[in-house]
Amino acid sequence: MAKAKTGLTKYVFVTGGVLSGVGKGITAASIGNILKARGLSVNIQKCDPYLNTDAGTLNPAEHGECFVTADGAETDLDLGHYERFLNIELTRQSSLMSGRIMRQVIDDERAGKYLGKTVQIIPHVTSAIQEHIQNAAKGFDVHIIEVGGTVGDYEGLSFIEAIRELGMRVGRENCAYVHVVYLPYLGASGELKTKPAQNAVRELRGLGIVPDVLVARSEAQAPDEVISKLSLFSGVDKRAIVLLPNANTIYQVPLTLEKQNIGKVLVERLNLPNKKANVASWHKLVERASNDSAPVLHIGIVAKYLNNQDTYMSVVEALKSAAWAAGKQVRIKWIDAEKFENTKVNIAKELSGLHGIVVPGGFGKRGLEGKIRAATFSLDSKLPYLGLCLGMQVGVIAAARRAGLKGANTIELNPNTPHPVIHTMNDQKGKEGTGGTMRLGNYPCELVEGSLARKLYTAKTVNERHRHRYEANNKYVGQYANWGISASGVSPDGTLVEIIEGTNHPFFIASQFHPEFKSRPTHPHPLFAGFIDACAQTK
Ligand code: GLN
């Protein structure tokens, strides 16, 4: 863990007004990025007002990807942005949902810790929140706290109150409040309107917080007068107002903030040393990401959720980063796995023109047979294949069935299969349906000498993040060679298949873990980099 260089931890609180989904998470991550670029040690945390305990039970179609930290927390996808923008590994401390706080307060009450006092939102819930925030902040120069939702939401009030109180506790000079607002565009008059943003600031002030920085998101570039107007109505210094129009790539945002001097405004506000920000590698990244003349690779993602692509956020970011590093661009074709369940659908035709396919993680029966067919097609046609978690399990099933093992399946799809090539992990038996019980977080994996995986990683042992309940059944591993696959990564005790690869295939590689969580925009993950290289060879 990083050590504070300046002694005292400073706090940056990021809230949002007007509406949700305007990029508050990216803004918080970008602030972290530019502060880290000044040599400061930075931690970051998301507070989510939902009454859930964690994101593990949230529907990914509605909430997007469930991100997994190294220590096995199931979190909001914003933590993925944080890790990518700050190039750090976060822990479960960085994800705080109301359910966790409520449970703690109620447990404490039952344990008699309140000594007969009336237990209340203020001060007990708000103190518990502050305690979590301060624990996460320990040892860092700056701790950034993003409060989910929109200020004024009923369920978010205890978090807003907690960050207001925390400002008093640590001293106003040691914290900065950043409010992200939205400027809607009115086609009829051809203007960007500031009124909802003005109201959103008033709402925040009404709750006792005066923002130090305003981030004004808009679809199009706002004219500079908007800054004077916002400043007049909100009382925020003009220098501390940033205009953030839509960017070609989210990775542009730190540079936009930096260009508008927000890093400087924040370090001055917080009395931190104003070192020059080192953003050279980030500049290079944005240059590569914006290179529209780079050759395009067409990648199919065979998936279950097509209406909310946030569900596969880290997969898409990992593909892009690998492509950019190789001087390419990717275009994703979203392929409905369920459609492939219809045997009349011509898979070759559906996948024609693609340089490779990815089968990402997933749960439940819907679309699973379709994913198995996609994996079979890749084995037959030698189309590059990258399987992630469930993508490995369907890879094993496809290989088994091709070799004549009729009805081979995963217990998840057919509990009565004659050949359970994927079955329930021993330590998962009886735990189905309860939150936070899967095999979660980092586990080591040893790479077999001479395998493609070992070559790609250039390492003998790797640590990767997991989130699964089923595993490859060891009873069948001896048959893999006959099926045209090999187990090229295994747990150190040899009991768990972690990676498989096609033995007579240019690139068929699949892992039981989720490599996408460890990929970084400036350091693409080796499995993704290898996949992109193989795709570039597809005729
Ligand atoms: N459903 C599978 C399992 O639980 C795969 C999980 C995943 O893809 N994350 O093992």
The CATH architecture category of the largest domain equals 3-Layer(aba) Sandwich
As a whole number of angstroms, the C-alpha radius of gyration is 25 Å
- Helical element count? 18
Extended strand count = 23
Helix content: 25-40%
- Name the average pLDDT: 94
Low-confidence stretches: none
In spatial order, strands of the major sheet run 13-12-14-15-23-22-21-18-19
Classify the secondary structure makeup into a structural class.
alpha/beta
**CATH classification class of the largest domain:** Alpha Beta
What about the largest sheet? 9 strands, mixed
Could you give the distance between the termini? 46 Å
Tell me the overall shape.
globular
Cofactors, ions, other ligands: glutamine
Describe the structure.
- There is one protein chain.
- With 539 residues, this protein is an alpha/beta fold.
- The chain has two domains: 276 residues, 3-Layer(aba) Sandwich (Rossmann fold); 245 residues, Class I glutamine amidotransferase (GATase) domain (Rossmann fold, 3-Layer(aba) Sandwich).
- The protein is 34% helix and 22% strand.
- The strands form five sheets. Strands 13-12-14-15-23-22-21-18-19 form a nine-stranded mixed sheet, sandwiched between helices.
- A hairpin with a 5-residue loop joins strand 22 and strand 23.
- The longest helix is centred in the N-terminal third of the chain and has 17 residues.
- It is globular.
- The model has no long low-confidence stretch (mean pLDDT 94).
- Glutamine binds next to strand 19.
